Amino acid sequence: MSTGFDLLIRASRALICTEELANEELANEELAAAVGVRDGSVTAVMPVDHSATAGSEIELDSSVVLMPGLVDSHVHICEPGNTEWEGFASATRAAAAGGITTLVDMPLDSLPSTVSVAALETKREAARGQCHVDVGFWGGVIPGNLGELAPLRRAGVLGFKCFLADSGSEDFPPVTTGEMEEALGVLRDLDAPLLIHAESAEAAAAVGIAGGRSYADYLASRPRGIENLAVCQVIEAARRSGGRAHVVHLSSSDALPMIASARREGVALTAETCPHYLVLAAEEIADGATAFKCSPPVRERANRELLWGGLRDGTVDFVVSDHSPATAEMKAVPSGDFGAAWGGISSLQLGLPVIWTAARRRGFCIGDVARWMSTGPARLAGLRRKGRIAVGYDADFCVVAPDESFIVDEDDIRHRHRITPYAGRKLDGVVHETFLRGEPTSAGAPRGQLLSSQASTKHG
Length: 460
Ligand SMILES: [Zn+2]
Known about the structure:
Blueprint: E1 5-16, E2 29-38, E3 41-46, E4 54-60, E5 65-68, E6 70-75, H1 88-97, E7 100-105, H2 117-127, E8 134-137, E9 139-140, H3 146-154, E10 160-163, H4 177-189, E11 194-197, H5 201-207, H6 215-220, H7 224-241, E12 245-247, H8 256-264, E13 269-273, H9 275-279, H10 301-313, E14 318-319, H11 351-361, H12 366-380, E15 397-407, E16 426-436, E17 439-440
Parallel strand pairs: 1-4, 6-7, 7-8, 9-10, 10-11, 11-12, 12-13, 13-14
Antiparallel strand pairs: 1-2, 2-3, 5-15, 15-16, 16-17
The protein binds zinc ion (ZN).
């Protein structure tokens, strides 16, 4: 079919995943193409000079790249309950400004936490009509809610999240390693991944909590061993249960060889890291600079370079924001006390330029960024219409100028709160437009949909 498109984008540079290229390594080849869209889906990928016609036609020159819309599977939206930290309208507006077309919301930091079907419905009710991009939900695994996992999966959560150490949220307590393994067994039968905050509660308790303005003291209070031990426990639980385990926000590069060897042995294990672990460095964080506080913490420069090596060899599957917003008061901005400050970094809108700027210096191409920030997260979340430009996928695109640069100005940030460790940085990669199911998100009205798992329910 070559005519009758709603939209036709002729791009000198498009990241296309053709059927022949459907294996992950080769996904997102850069080529000139005409992408035809009908009813919000990509229905044809043709040579750029194809004679097809459409209701609306856009021509993109070689200064911009047509990428698949980004998928960020690690976002704390906080509404309802803590909407003053962040909400669906502000988070999704910031996402669209940053080239993201799909978010998956974490099950904690809102009230209630997403640990039952009733709580999921409350979240959806709060989100409905407010979202500028598509939004899916992770469910939570906490002590005592194993019976809720199958109903939550049937109700459409894309997978589940648990903590092995204190989450910072009283109504989202951590599970023991035994409870994690039990949950992995239940989720294996529901064909859902378990995302794990891999810091060990026992190891953390032995070190204690550091207060004060010194970043070095804060870093010393969250040593790599806390993560290393927990990653070991995740690997063995996944091996024994046969469930799919995913390590969120990996920060300790020590864990990379363990993850790689477990995968070689066939353990169903994936891992993500975040822009702050790949771009920031402990040596450069000033005392009192609590905008940089997160847990696990930003570590040394040498650790950061090893994480890039993990991305290069595929041990780290992808990159997501872990956007964890807070008010300036919560970030303890006046006192600069790392003990008192909220542990979380806001970067949703800036992830693409932050990563691209650092990646290109290390010899990566924009197709690598699409694999890390779109294809990979979509695959974890089981979103079969997201993360690629290919026939049958949603027409979600990001038009980015990779060689254009800008200075991060807090006035341009659309998160509810503008505090970010990237303020004042010069970054490459300006997002010119974001398309959600074939229409520009800059058009205004919120058109985002609430996504549900399309997983088979044959297990229950
Ligand atoms: Zn998080």
